[in-house]
Every structure is written in C-alpha cells, then in structure tokens.
Amino acid sequence: MNRQRLSGWGRTAPAMSEVLSPASEEAVVDDLAQADAVIARGLGRSYGDAAQLSGGVVLDNRSLGGIGAIASDGVVTVGAGVSFDELLNVAIPLGWFVPVTPGTRQVTLGGAVAADVHGKNHHRDGSIGDHVLEMRLVTPSGVHTVTPTSEPDLFWATIGGMGLTGVVTTVTLRLIKIDTDKVLVDTTRFACLDDVMAAMVAGDDDYRYSVAWVDCMTRGASMGRAILTRGEHATRRDLEATSLDAPAPAKLRVPFNAPSGLLNPLSIRVFNEAWFRSAPAHREGEEQSLGSFFHPLDGVGDWNRLYGRRGFVQYQFAVSDAEAECVVRAIERLSSSGVPSFLAVLKRFGPANHGLLSFPFSGWTLALDLPVGPAALPEVLDDLDEMVIEAGGRVYLAKDSRLSPGSVRVMYPRLPEFLAVKDRVDPRHQLTSDLARRLHLVGR
Amino acid sequence: MENAFGQPQNVVVLGGSSDIARAITKKLCAARAHTVVVAGRDQARLDEAARDALDYGASRTETVVFDAEDPSGASAAVGEAFAKAGGHVDLVLVAVGRLGQQVLDQSDPAAALRMMNVNFTWPVVALTEARNRLVAQGGGRILVISSVGAVRVRASAYLYGSAKAGLDRLCLAMADSLEGTGVRVQVLRPGAVRTRMTEGLPDVPFTTGVNEVADTALKGLSSAEAVIWSPPLLKYVYMVLRHLPGPVWRKVMDR
Ligand SMILES: Cc1cc2nc3c(=O)[nH]c(=O)nc-3n(C[C@H](O)[C@H](O)[C@H](O)COP(=O)(O)OP(=O)(O)OC[C@H]3O[C@@H](n4cnc5c(N)ncnc54)[C@H](O)[C@@H]3O)c2cc1C
Predict the structure, then answer these.
(1) B227-230 and B183-190 beta bridge pairing
(2) What CATH code is carried by the domain that includes residue B58?
(3) Most-buried pick from A26, A275, A356, B19 (CB within 10 A)?
(4) Could you report the per-residue pLDDT of B183-218, keeping only the tens digit for each?
C-alpha cells in the first residue's frame, strides 16, 4: 500500500489515493484489471483535481520512461512518463525541439496529450495533438494503437480527454529542427489592453511564437497595460557563435510554504509595477535562451508554494475573435472587484483540432493566477463563467478546480460524443478522477 | 467533490433542521451543493429543510430520522446518511444540539444525562463513524458547530457549555490526528445567534443572525483555520474574556 496525499499545482482540495507505478504496458494492463476506479498522473502540473482520485488508484506514469532514437525526419517515440525536460535534454543537442511546449518543461508527454497542451505558437502550429502520430493506449477493453487514421474517434477522444479514455503508455510525435538553442525576441510595451490586442491581431502571423503579459491590477486609462514578446528560433546565420545546449535545471527552490497573505493586492501591485518598468518600450532581435523564452518560471522550483497554504487557482478561458470584448470585460471585472491577480497571459489561438474535449479554438485566450482567499473570488469566477458561456467560449479543464457541472456541458458541447467513445472502451467507467466526479463528466 | 474554494457538492447534515444548519445548507446549495442528506429528529421539519435545499439549488435531497438522546443509534444514522448520499461525501456538517434550560436541568440528573447525550455523546459517536468513512474515501471535510460558550463555560449554561467544550476540544485534537489523511475537521464557534433556540432571550453583545453565521462558515471552509469564529471579532474578545478573574467574569457573563 502506497497511500499518498495528492493535489494539483494549485495545491487546493487534496485527496488520498493509492499510488502505483507500473513500469510496463503489461503492468498497466494488470493494474487496470484490478482497480475499481483509476486515473493516470504525470508530474501533477495541472492546476486542479485532474490527476487525483480520492479513495481510488492513481497510476504514476513516471515509471513509463524511455526515449527512442530520433529519426531523420524528427519522428520519435517516447514513454508517456518522460518529461519535456528529459526529452529536450536529449533532443536539443541533436538539433531538435518539441513542436509545442507549455510554459513549463516539468510536464510529461502523457499529461501533455491528455490536456492537448498549447504553447506560444498555437496560432501557427496548433496544439500538441496536431503533432502526435501515434499513441499506445491501455483501456479496460484492451490495448490500442491509436493514430489519427486507424482509430480516429479514440485518438481524438484521448487527445484532450484528461486521462478518461485510458492510460497512454507511449507517444510518437514529430519534433522540429532547430539550428541553435537561441530565440530572437522582439519586445514591445503597451499602455493599455486595446493597443496590445490590436498589435497582436495585426502582427502575430509574422511570428512563430507570441504571448502578451497583461497587468490586471491597474484601472482607468492604463487598464490592462501589457508587454508583448514575440520570437523565432535563431538560425546559424543570425548568430555569431552558436550552441545547442539543453536548458539548465532550476537553481532556486521555495523551501517552505509562504504565509497565505504574502501575495496580496499591494505586493502584487508592487511586483507588477517593477516588472512593467523593467521591460523596454521596444526592443528587437534580442537573443534569449530556449529556457528563458519558453519556460521562464522553471528557474524557481516549487514556486506554487509562494501562494501559501490555501493555494491558488488559475482561470484560463478562450473566446472567438468576434467576442474579443469578453477579454476586456473579464479584466475589468477582476480589477474592479479588487481580487488580486499576478500577471495574466494573453495569447491568440489558431483553429481548433478534432479533439472532442480539446480547449483551444480560433480567437483569444487569457490565463490568470488568483490566490484563494478573497471572499469575492468564487462568485467573481462564477460570473466570468457566465460571461464566457454567453460569448460561446470555454474554460481550460487542465487549469480548472472550480467549474460547475452545468457550465462544462455548455462549454464542451462535444461531451456526448466523447462519452460515446468512452462507453465503448471503458463500459464500467473505471477511469475517473476527482475532476471528472466534480464536473459529472463520467458516471462515477 | 469539493472545489478549490472548499465548496462541497455532496453534503450530509446531522441536525439538519436547526436554524444555523439550514442557513449554512442554503448557502452551500447556492454555491455548488447538489446532493444534500438532512438528518434529524422530526420528519416534518426535515422535509422543510430539504425543500429549502432544493429551492436554493440542490438537485437531490434525502432525509434520515434519528434521536440524539440515544447515542447507540448514532453510527447507524451516519451509515444511513452516507448510503443515501451515494458516492463521495464532501462535507459532514454536525449541528446536533440542545440549549436546554439550565436552571431546571441542573438539579435533574436525568436532564443532565440528556444534555450530555445530545450535545456530546451522540455527536462524538457520529463523528467517529464519519471519520472512518471519510478516511476510507480518501478525503472530506467535517464542520462541527460548537459555541463561544465552549471557550469558557458560564454558570448560566454550564451543562450546554461544558458538553460543547468537550466536543470542541475533541474535534480540535481529532483534526490533528487526521493530519495527512486528506480529512479536515473544523469547528465553528458562533456567539449568540437569534434562532428558535434563543427565542425570547434578550440580545447580548455580538448577537448575529443565522445568515451572518452561515456566511462566516462558508468563508471558513475555504480557509485553513481549524476554528471559525462568528462574528470573527469574537476571537479577540475571547482572548480577553477567557482570562478575566472569576469575580469579574461572573459579573460580565452571568448578569
Ligand atoms: C507553470 C505552468 C505553466 C503551464 N503552461 C501551460 C501552457 O502554456 N499551455 C498549456 O496547455 N498548459 C500549460 N500548463 C498546464 C500543463 O501543461 C498541463 O496541465 C499538463 O497536463 C500537465 O502535465 P503533467 O504531466 O503534469 O500531468 P498531470 O497534471 O499529472 O495530469 C494531467 C492530466 O493528464 C492525465 N494523464 C497524465 N498522464 C497520463 C497518461 N500516461 N495517460 C493518460 N492520461 C494521463 C491525467 O489523468 C490528468 O487528467 C502549465 C502548467 C504550469 C504549472
């Protein structure tokens, strides 16, 4: 018995589960045969309760390792428990990079496909599911080799399916070629939200990578001041000296839980001010390492502890271009209710893929980190849900820890199709999670 | 399942027809609660409480009848409530209690026994049963309604106050014992509250209505505090009151 207390990255609503570490596909098959209720877990970087199952069995995918040889066209097969960090350590020195990376390297391939993660290049390259060629998937009804053509419905139920179709054991994907370990970055500071959004609509298509950081704590004319950073992989021609080094591991750790009030409206305002001023008004062609461009937060391990014992939530939603106003109103609603938020991340999304529960679709996405504590927060977020629903948008399940069952059904209209596939491979609904229970996604 | 703000979906309320329990339940239903099992003595009053819950947003309610004067029935009552909840129970609210009539009860051994059974023994047996079940399901929350009267027991309500004091301390230590199990126990210490129980009594300082108590309780559920005071200021008032010399204390509290 290995009972562990698990929670997501936001450290809210912990639960005890029986944790098993199957080291092979056969072991996963056995574990599924024996467990009554079960869910896979990667590095626990989803914010809420997606990778935990109170009183049930959690399969830690980290024991499903192994990185295959990278073919000349960039195709590689990796164990679902391999992290982006581990894969990049092998790939970068050979001149390869992942086609999509989330804001941290500390996620597993299994977790990435289950959430169908997106990066700063979604407007160009789509999400991780668009680059997966094949997966091995263990379900209660057997082991499947799923590809977009062989079992398309099971493939697209699993991409973004939050682990509810089965346990992915290997992922085959196509890496992209890089010349150097540098990104050439253009940075521009904007005085308000309207300006940065206009600039993104006008210019994002000229860049592979683009993201804006928005200050949600200022009101009035400077509401939503922002810093836009956009970049391209540097080629050999761009640089004088080139290298292909993997990113360095985190040097700093947060050794203990900070007191819950550390991140309060005042301290966040001070931080945002300092950070905003430190950015240049405009700068072009700055050389940044892959690590500092893609994973700036990975420099400090366990930074989630800064939010104290009560933890924090992340609210990330997507709306279409026609509903861009929703982004503005969401930030207004937050800044007027005095709910503190660290910098918010604003991005443009390209077209959706076929993932039945995938999050991204064409338009805008905004993500906000919010400490648990302010009494108004639960209601403010419920209001935002309504706004997002009215705008035909949705909230990202990988970040969620507080949506209601009713909202999810409207936000993810393809849920019935998803459940039809699930019923086929998991008729007893053995695969479930605290998230699935909370949102009534599956029968139990 | 409970969400990030400590808002439960599946709730068992023991003593569910008490005014405070009903006020808390309504607010829980307005947030995320969808299944509510109300347990108590009087079927008609339980039905009323269940109707409240539905009005405020619950989608399913069940009732369980028990008699808190009989602690030997407590674990069966809790078992029945969990069975009717079906699945993971996120919150057990323990609101069983009776204020009694101190001046009459204090000279009546049978009444003293009743006061201890209802306010202490029955809840302790029920908590023991709930504890086992929550630990087995891997997590959950228990909120026990105590009283500021448990902090320093007054002569004018010593049967009630001392039973609550015992329950209050037991819960705090039980909370410690559950560290690392995913189960959390919190006690709510309301000051004087205008309820049926206190009808006809004059308002003392810091008297609140049940809705204020319920608001404070919900806020408390999203915090890591073991003790939730209502109104919150009473925490500081009692820092002083509990250390008053006896004669002063009697003068202040038992006028
Ligand atoms: C700092 C930070 C930045 C982030 N930035 C981004 C971003 O830019 N874009 C983005 O899209 N996301 C982002 N995320 C979210 C993160 O990428 C996803 O939550 C991802 O799923 C986490 O992977 P994990 O390995 O930690 O999985 P976990 O959090 O452990 O699990 C997530 C889900 O994957 C399922 N799962 C895990 N392994 C398997 C498996 N082998 N088979 C089937 N299902 C499995 C789990 O059941 C669960 O539903 C960020 C998170 C953090 C903490």
Answers:
(1) parallel
(2) 3.40.50.720
(3) A356
(4) 999 999 999 888 877 777 777 888 899 999 999 999
